[in-house]
Each structure stands twice: as C-alpha cells, then as structure tokens.
Amino acid sequence: MRKLLDGTHLGAAVAFLAGLLASTHGEAADPVKVGVVTPLSGTYAQIGKQVRWGAELAVKEINAAGGVNGRSFELIFEDEEANPPVAVRKAEKLLLQDKVDLLTGTVNSGSTLAVGQVAERNDRILVTTVSYATSITGAQCNANVFRVNANAFQQSSALTAWLVKNIPGKRYFFVGPDYEMGRSTIAAFQDDIKRLGGTEVGATYPPLGAKDFSPYLGQVRAARPDVIMTATAGNDTVRLLTQLKEYGMLSGELTLAGAAGAVTQENIGAMSGAAEGFVSAAGYAVDVDTPRNKAFVEAFKKQYQTDPDLFGADTYGLFYLFKQAIEKAGTTDTAKLRAAMENVTWETPQGTKKIRKEDHQAVVDMLTVKVVGSSFKTVGRVPGEEAIGPNNCKKF
Amino acid sequence: MEDFVSYLHFVVLPQFIDGLIIGVALALVALGLTMIFGLLDVINLAHGDIYMLGGYAAVAALGWGAGYWGALVFVPLLVGVVGWGLEELGIRPLLPRGDRAIVTLLLTFGVSLILRDLAQVVFGTETYAIATPLSGMAKLAGVAVPLYRLFVLICGAAAIVLTWWLVYRTRIGAVLRATAVDPAMVASFGVPIRIVYGATFFYGCALAGFAAVLLGPIYAVFPTMGHDFLLLAFAVVIVGGMGSIAGAVIAALLLSQVQGLASLWIPPVWAETLVYAVMMLVLIVRPRGLFARIGEA
Amino acid sequence: MLHAGAAEPVRLSDPAGFVASIALRRFVAVLLLVAVLFPWLGGGFYTRLAIEALLLAATALSVDVLLGYAGLLSLGQAAYFGLAAYITALCYLHVTQSFWLVAAIVVIAVALLSAALGAVAIRARGVYFALITFGAAEILSKIAHNTRALGGSDGLIGIPVPSLQVLPGLKIALSDNMVFYYVVLAVIVLVYFGIRRVLNTGFGSVLRAIRDNSDRVAYLGYNPFWYKLVAYVLAAEVAALGGLFYPLLRGFVAPNLFGFEISTQSVVMTLVGGVGTLIGPLLGGVIITFFESVIGSYTERHLMVLGVIFVVFVLFLPDGLVGLARRSSHRRSGTTS
Do A215 and B149 touch (CB under 8 A)? Predict the structure, then answer.
C-alpha cells in the first residue's frame, strides 16, 4: 500500500514538473490573446460554429503570414450557451484568468450588452460580429464596445428600399418573435415601409420558440399580403416557412423577406424548398465578386466543407481589423487601441468597411440577397453611407 | 352579424381545429407521463428528452432508407426499449426507498441532461427536417386543412383510443389498474410486477416516440424540442389529474384550446403564461386534478 | 400504498445529534479556515466565482431547511432568489442607492410573497407541494420574460456596484473583489449559524416531529400548518439573501434567475452535500458551482457530465458527501449510527 502511494506521489510530482516546464516553454514574444465567448451549444450553436470557423481561419492565415508585429494571435474559446449570465461568467474568466487582450464572439444581443459591461469594468474592448440590436451602438452604447456587422437599422433600410422598388404589391405583413430583438427589428421594418409608401396590413408576434405557427396564419390569410417580413431565426424560421408552405400559402405572388439571420447556411437545409425566393439584406453574400472574397470562400470551403455565411465572414474580417489596429497603435493598450479603431477603414472579403467614431458602428455596404435553390444570390446593393442612419449614441 | 359569423368561421374555427391537432399530439406525450406516474409514483423529467430521442430516431431511420411509414412503426419500438432500459437501470433500484418521488425526479432530471447532450454529440446542433409524406389540402367544415395534419389528428386519436381500450378493456389493463392500487396484492397472485412496471414504461415512452414521428414533419427535429413540450405536458398532467388517462386526454385538448383561442385576443406569450396560471389554480383549488387516478373511483 | 400524498420525507437518522456533534464542529471549522484563506490562494476570477458559489449555496441551504427539517421538497426556491435579484436591480436602477433600504424592501417583499404562496402550498401534500412551488417559479420567470419594463428576455444591465454604509463613517466598497467576498462569506456564515441555532431550539424539534409524523403532533396540540409556514418563510428569506447580492456581483439580472435550472440545481446541491446537515448543502453548492465552471472550460458537453454526477449520487450516495464523511468517521471511531 505504501509503495503504491509513493509511486503515485512520484508520478504526480513528475507530471507537475513536466507541466510547469511545458508552460514556461512559451514563444519568444507573447501572443495576442483574443477571448471568443460564443454559443457552442444550445439554440444558437449553429451561429457560434460559423463564428468559430471564421476566427480560426483568419488567425491561421495571419499567423502564417508573420502575425501581428511578430506576435501571433491566440484564440481562447468559451461556450456562452446563448445565455447572458453564462456569457458574463465566461467573459470574466477570459478577462481575469486567461488575461485576454480582446473579446469577441457574443451572438445574443443580451449577451453582447452584458459582456460589454464586463469589458468596460475590466478595461478591455469587446467587438461583436453578429448581434444586431440597434441599442448596442445606440441607446445603450459603450465606449468599449464595437460592432463590425450590420445592425437591424441598416438591414431594414436596405431591404425595404429594395422591396418597395422591386415588388409591385404594397401590402406588408410582419411576423416577429415576441421578445426584445424580434419586436425592435419588426419596428425598424415597419417604420421604413411606412416611410417608403407601403401599407402595413397586419403584424403578429408569436412567442420565441413557438412550436406551431398555424394559429397565426389565420391572421395572415385574412390580411392577404403581398409581402411577409419576418424577424424569426433558426428553428423558428424553419417552422414558419414550412408551415406556410404546408398550408399552400407560398404559391403565387407572395414574396418572403426578413432579417439577415432568418435564413442562413445552417437552417436552409431543413426547409425543403420553403425558403425559395426569400429576400434579406446583409452585409455579406457568398457571391460577392472580389478576388479577396473568392480567395476567402475557397479557403473556407476547403477547410470546413461548407460555404461561409455572414457570421463567419464578419468574424474573419474582424481579425484583420485587429491586426491593423494593433500594428498602428503599436500596443494592445485599450485606450490606444480604441483610438486606432475609430474612423478607420480596413479591407474585408466583402469590401472596405469603416468604423464610425461616434458610435463604433461599422459602415457596411448592404447587399440584398435572395435564396435560389439552396444558395444565396445577390440581387441588389445599397452603399454603406446610405444605409447607416443617424448616430444615436450619446454616451461618449 | 354577418361579420361575426364570418369571424367565427374564418378565424376562430381554424384556430380551434389547429388546437385540436396540437392537443392530440400533446395528449400522446402527456399519456406516457401520467401512466408512469399513476403506476409508479415516478415523475419522469426525462420524458421530454425521450420524445426528442424519438425525433432523432426518425431522422436516423429515414437516413437508413426506412421511409416514413417504416419510421412510424420502428421508432416507437426503439424509444419504448429505451424507456424500458431507463426503468430497469435507473428507476427500479430506487423504488423501495421511502423518498422515491424525490429521488426518481432527480434521477430522471440527470438522465434528461445526459440525453440532451448525447443527442448533440451524435447528431450535431442543426435542425433536421423530415419530409411530409402527404401533401395537399382537405376541406373540413369549410376550412382548409393540410392533409397531413388531418392524418396526424386521426392517427393520434387512434392511439388514444387504443390506449384506453388496452387499459380499460383488456386483462393486461386490469392487471395494470390493480397494480396501481395495491402492488403487493397483485404480486401475491403470482403476477410479475417488474414486468408490469417495465411494460408501462415501454408503452408510455413508445407513445412519446410515436408522437415525435407524427410531429416531425410539422415541427422539425432539434435538440431542445423535448424541453418545450415537457413543461406543457406537465401542465396537462397536473390539470387532468396525475395518473388519469381520461384526464390527460381531456386536459390536453382543453389546455391547447385555451392557449390557441387566447392567442387570438391577448399576446401569445401571455397565452402561454395563462396556461401555467390555470395549472396553478388547479393545484391550489383541486390538486388531484379533474379526474381520478388509474384504479381509483 | 402508492399515493402521492404519502411520499415519505428524506432524513438522516438523528441529524440534530449529528449537527451538534464534535465531528461536525471540526469539519465546519476546517471549512471556515479554507473559506477565509481562499482569496489569498485564488485570484480575481476564482474569488468572484467563489462569491457566486456562496450565493447559490444559499439557495441550497434554503432547500435543506425545508427538506431536511420540515419534510417539504421545494422545486421553486429560485422564485425568491430571482425576486430578490430583480427587486435589488430595479431599486438600484430607479429608486435608491442605499443598500440597507434595498435590503429592507427585499426582506419585506419576500416575506409577503412567501407567506402568501406558502399558505396555499402547504395545504397540499407531498408531491403537489413541490409542483406548486415549481409552478410559481415558472410563472414569475415567464412574467419577467414577457415584460419589457423588466428587461424582457435580455434582462436588465447597468446595475452599479455599491458601497455599504456599515457604521457612520465606515463605508465598505464592494468594488474590491476580496472585500465583496468577505462580506458575503460573513453573511453566509451568520445565516448558517443562525439557522442552526433556530433549528436546535424547541421550534426545530417540533418541526422535525411534524416532518416525521404530522398527525400525531397535531394531537399533541401543535398546529403543523404554522410551523411549516414559518419554516417556509425562513427558507425563502435565506434564498433571497443570495438573490440580494447577485446583481451587485454580476451587474445584471435575467429571467433565468427564476428558472428551473437554479431551483433544481439547489436541490442537487443539497443532495450532493447531504440532506439535513445544513453544512452539506453549502458545501455541495460551492462544489457544484466550481465543478461546472471547470468542466465547462474543457468540454461543451458539461451538461452530460453533470447529469452523470447527479445520477451517480442519487443511485449510490443518497446521504451526500457529508453523510459519507460521517460514515467513515464512525467507522474509524468504532461507533454505530
């Protein structure tokens, strides 16, 4: 018995020493640590997957090309489970324990707001590449929070402009999940449609995660709309569209449209054609015809066997912004980094983006995208400056 | 007056019919829950995830070329076996304990966590679609209803009737009802109680699996599908009377109508809360629910 | 007989004797020492995690008061944790910055709600009590989720980290992690000893007698209903204490604070620690919180691991960790029971 204990103790000591040696045998220069707190399980796991892939691909490329001023990027992933309290806890771990220099990855707008608060209290910067609640760079803006993707306002102005111009019928029906994100996105759509001369013939707000949309289809039928605009996402969109198809409402002159996250690479497979013709406006489309995007899509497909979507592309583009900013500031000090990220432009797969200083929102050219078969085709474009809208951030 | 009739016909009636279809599916899931409780005093928190398992089993079966009708037969059997396994390995050892209601609840909670993650490990996080086997619309009282939903309604109703017949009109059912009242007595007649328990779990879970295949084409299959349904199924079981078959069916139909019709006039999220409020009311005023347990008068 | 109302309560044989025993006192002393030294060993992140662990452990303690001593299983202690958290958040955001005023409001509000709910729930027997508590928490959760004024599904952010005015002239800033930790530790320790004291008095004896055989106690002239109600309100306040500090730690509240996960976790913590031991649930709470955080870093499948742990404890270790420790200490000293 005693012998065994000795053996175990000895083994443990050796392992401990080995571990100590291994951890001290680091790289010549410290890596730039980026904490990615993103949903890797749960409802938004599909989005988190693309975020992860975009980040990993960018970091691989940048590190292979010499890194950032000789330092390489190091990614540390944590699963936020699309749950703000968990996101906060994980973000704190990344900040306090792993001592990351930058944070990104949050998907859920609630998570972004909550983690943004944590980032501010710990003097670090958070950049979101997915969340599109306008309040993040609007009423609840934060000097430490940046956004490189298009927000709900930008999506809405681009999409509604295209719809009003291209769809002869003017009757619009709105379907939004009944929570903060859904309601505010629909509100943006409603305002823009009214402004452009369309007619709202009805709106309904099924609960988030509603199993069955057929109870709401009665209202839709009664309203006889020309366009249905939806702010659902993930499984909700799958159910809404397949049930619309089931009830025979998708034949004929009805156009489907909605938020950029409604129909994506990850849920289009489950729709069996119900999403045909779905129109949305996003800051990215796979068929953007630039050499940079072609190279990006090819590399992405080779690595992950599937096309990138807007979440993957925006996350990929973010790291090039980080690289540029860190090289320009010469440091990862937050105040200097912030200055190096305001009012700058940088190159992304979809073109040139610019961060507006007043609210840290990226100015993005908006692409109107239509679902054809099982892929997404660009059918229109609105320049960034037109789509962005006024600055609503008064806090810094 | 015309408007009112038209409103009834084109808004309320379709809502009612949809509610009926949901109610039947809900009843299938709730039946399993209530039978297990009625017989064993076990609150099966894993029931929703067993339902989910049924959905994924259907996806897998279709992937192997079984076809929808094959899945309809095969999946309930598979899920039933899983239920049996759960009973043998997890529940049975705990039955002799005095605090069985609590510990089985905790056990099944642990099992539900395991099942949910297991599904994600094996199938990933995306949503899977199951192709609708029947397309086209039918007219029911002047309302257009998809043919497939009508099929679901008929199948579900048939399963309910089958269950009722099994429990109240066969010898097996008599044994079941007797065991719910006095297992020791039944055991002394030489009836193998463990088989009765195992079979009940098998059947209850098989019903949930059957419901999952029926609902697959309508709702799609994804990891949290069980969780959503489970809470509602619990409300049904509580209102109907824990352990009562008639109660589960009637409460399922009733609550789905409450939610569906209320959605016409109040925001749908509050309609859902209303259902839970009804559940609380029943718990407070008449905790035994609307109907009596299996075996009791 | 298989009737829901007759479900027997969980019990550790002679918990009062054990609780007062020397072995337990030593055990508690050791834990206290570790707890006091912890921030020096831990570091910023772990100290904050420990604070959260202690707050969640309070919910476990509240479950034990009901389960181990009154024989009532509550599946809805999160209702009071969440209620306290939301009231605290709303007060700090809109009403006042005075900690004591907020604490007073929380105590009163929770007392009122728990008295009302308890009066209704205690009348029901066995499993139905659990279901009513579960239903109440669910409804509160849905109300928070559906109401935009309460932040909806995203919750409320922007809750400041306050300073406590302890004595005129003595202000404690909670913005320092270590200070916050010691404040919370002091509160939890006080509550633990306080509850232990209360349960060791006549009140506690009657309560335990009611748990074991309610009818007989009634014949002796005691009204079980009032005893159970007092225990219920007491337990609610303990859980509320956790909820009071939570928004101050995290800076925000969300509907999941009322949720089923927190309620069930509190029961699991109690089971893992040892029902009826009071210290067990606290220990269980800390262990489970740390464990989840550590596992969460290694695998996304932490739910499965947690599920396996639950199952293992339920099947094989029903007395929990403290029960295990107790059995081994008896084995060593040669005593039985």
Answer: no
How, if at all, do strands A279-282 and A345-348 pair? Answer: unpaired
Interface test mutation site (partner A, options B17, B218, B258, max chain A beta carbons within 10 A) = B218
Give yes or no for C304 touching B (CB within 8 A): yes
- Chain C environment of A121 (Cβ under 8 Å): 251
- Residue found under tokens 């500090």: C245
Residues 165-224 of B with CB under 8 A from A: 218-220, 222, 224
Over the stretch B239-254, which tens digit does the pLDDT of each residue have? Answer: 998 888 889 999 999 9
Asked if the model's pLDDT at residue A65 lies above 50, the reply is yes
Task: List pLDDT tens digits, range B190-234.
Answer: 888 888 889 999 999 999 999 999 988 888 888 778 877 888 888
**Are A163 and A244 within one domain?**
yes
A202 neighbors A173 (Cβ within 8 angstroms): yes
pLDDT in the model for residue A181: 81
Residue C326 one-letter amino acid: R
Domain holding A68, by residue range, is 31-150+287-364
What number does CATH give the domain B2-285?
1.10.3470
Give the CATH number of the domain where residue A254 resides: 3.40.50.2300
- In Å, how far is C74's CA from the nearest CA of chain B? 10
Nearest residue in chain A measured CA to CA from B263:
A215
Scored b (16 or more CB within 10 A) or e, A44-78 reads: bbbbbbbbbbbbbbbbeebeeeebbeebbbbbbbb
**Strands laid side by side in the A362-363 sheet:** A345-348, A351-355, A362-363
User: Inter-chain contact A218–B127, Cβ cutoff 8 Å?
Assistant: no
Record the pTM: 0.84
Q: Is residue A239 part of a domain?
A: yes
Asked if C124's CB is within 8 angstroms of B273's CB, the reply is: no
Asked whether the beta carbons of residue A113 and residue C45 sit closer than 8 angstroms, the reply is: no
A369: left (phi over 0), alpha (psi -120 to 50) or beta: beta
Distance from CA of B61 to the nearest CA of C (A): 25
Residue A261 CA to residue C269 CA, distance in Å, equals 39
